[in-house]
């Protein structure tokens, strides 16, 4: 399953083999996108499909293998199904024939552990309806909504969609503002966007594009320029910006040019507030000053891309950390949403901005480190700390949190 490449709400469908999970997906998307067969175990790896849900908008449905799969290969399928829980915003647990036991309870435990809201669907009710005793047994273990359902007609589909809308957190599909509460309508927001060898040909990177749109959505005036024009902007008496947002890699230069009384931050830090674990980043970033000789730092990228000699995660950050600490610090890097093993080996975890993943995916990715008491930071905050401007570039967000 290609994880983390779509920012829409992710809905996972889980249950035992042959419970009709794929048929439910086909009904929801109104086409046969998932293979349906009476043979148990038809679905192997998790499969993603786009869907439009009225009142929610575009979403991603993830069909998973049966949680009761057996054998060596079956165990691997189950493991992938369980891994999918870390990437979703909402789950549908499918049961049939009034079966609610070990497998269902284990799934619910996983939903709870990863704070995934869920509902329970008793499928194939045209063959065997949900019995009161089953509903009572479920109620003793879970407070989730239970729906008696069949895919033989669309009468129950509206109820399912309505329950999904109630179950999925609104924050998942209501698009929060990057700069809301930080900028005021009518003001100028200056975006400093260096164009180096890492920049894609002929276009802006996603954080820059989203920032431009968000500035306009906040009824501000957006000015975009390269760092090489920044001194000219202030020298020629252009409108004074109420906020400057720069690429974190340019912090060293930009922070010296932008007047001290003009708020300054970076695209990476803006995304940390929107999609990352902002509070833990604030607490964990100072750990950079406590690294000792031979310590290990884990650097997490959310996307995969071709690497050059100026790649920030694989080359610049490790070099800057060694230069800042004056110590031989070992840096490992993990790209995509691959599972992290041996998390206790690291003294610090540094996460990228996360522009291509959902907040749920990013938070779950960092959770093992947070649970283990390991400091976490992100690219922008780490670079700011090493440039001695951490307090300055996080100050706009401190004010925002104080207002809440």
Structural class comes to: alpha/beta
Strand order of the biggest β-sheet: 2-3-1-4-5-6
**Mean pLDDT, rounded to whole units?**
86
- Radius of gyration from CA coordinates: 24 Å
Sheet with most strands: 6 strands, mixed
Low-confidence stretches: 1-5, 33-37, 40-44, 305-309
Q: What is the CATH T-level topology of the largest domain?
A: Rossmann fold
Number of self-contained structural domains: 3
Strand content: 15-25%
- Total number of strands: 14
- The shape, in one word, is elongated
Fraction of residues in H or I helices = 25-40%
Give the SSE string.
Answer: EHEEHEHEHEHHEHEHEHEHHEHEEHEHH
Describe this structure in words.
The structure is a single chain. The protein has 404 residues and is α/β, with parallel strands linked by helices. The chain has three domains: 164 residues, Rossmann fold; 83 residues, Rossmann fold (3-Layer(aba) Sandwich), CATH 3.40.50.11420; 111 residues, Rossmann fold (3-Layer(aba) Sandwich). It has 15 helices and 14 strands. The protein has a six-stranded mixed beta sheet with strand order 2-3-1-4-5-6, sandwiched between helices. A four-stranded parallel beta sheet has the order 8-7-9-10, with helices on both faces. α14 packs across α15. The N terminus is likely disordered.
């Amino acid at each position: 399953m290609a994880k983390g490449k779509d920012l829409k709400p992710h809905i996972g469908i889980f249950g035992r083999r042959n419970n009709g999970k794929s048929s439910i997906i086909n009904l929801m998307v109104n086409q046969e996108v998932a293979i349906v067969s009476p043979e148990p175990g038809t679905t192997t790896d998790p499969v993603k499909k786009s869907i439009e849900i009225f009142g929610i908008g575009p979403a991603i449905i993830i069909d998973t293998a049966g949680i009761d799969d057996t054998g060596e290969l079956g165990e691997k399928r189950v493991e992938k199904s369980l891994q999918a829980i870390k990437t979703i915003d909402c789950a549908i647990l499918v049961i049939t024939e009034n079966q609610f036991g070990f497998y269902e309870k284990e799934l619910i435990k996983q939903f709870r552990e990863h704070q995934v809201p869920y509902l329970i669907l008793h499928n194939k009710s045209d063959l065997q309806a949900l019995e009161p005793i089953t509903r009572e047994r479920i109620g003793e273990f879970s407070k989730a909504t239970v729906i008696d359902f069949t895919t033989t007609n669309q009468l129950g589909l509206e109820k399912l969609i309505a329950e999904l809308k109630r179950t999925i957190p609104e924050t998942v599909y209501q698009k929060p503002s990057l700069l809301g509460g930080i900028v005021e309508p009518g003001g100028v927001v200056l975006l400093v966007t260096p164009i180096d060898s890492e920049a894609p040909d002929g276009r802006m990177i996603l954080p820059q594009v989203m920032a431009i749109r968000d500035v306009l959505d906040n009824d501000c005036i957006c000015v975009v320029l390269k760092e090489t024009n920044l001194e000219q902007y202030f020298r020629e008496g252009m409108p004074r910006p109420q906020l400057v947002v720069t690429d974190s890699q340019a912090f060293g230069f930009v922070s010296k040019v932008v007047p001290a009384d003009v708020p300054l931050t970076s695209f990476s830090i803006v995304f940390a507030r929107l999609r990352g674990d902002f509070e833990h980043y604030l607490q964990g970033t100072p750990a950079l000053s406590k690294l000792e000789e031979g310590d290990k730092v884990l650097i997490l990228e959310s996307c995969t891309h071709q690497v050059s000699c100026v790649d920030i995660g694989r080359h610049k950050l490790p070099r800057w950390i060694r230069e800042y600490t004056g110590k031989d610090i070992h840096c490992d890097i993990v790209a995509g949403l691959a599972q992290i093993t041996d998390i206790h080996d690291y003294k610090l975890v540094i996460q990228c901005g996360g522009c291509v993943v959902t907040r749920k995916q990013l938070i779950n990715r960092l959770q093992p480190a947070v649970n283990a008491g390991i400091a976490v930071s992100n690219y922008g905050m780490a670079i700011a700390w090493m440039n001695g401007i951490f307090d300055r570039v996080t100050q706009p967000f401190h004010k925002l949190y104080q207002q809440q």
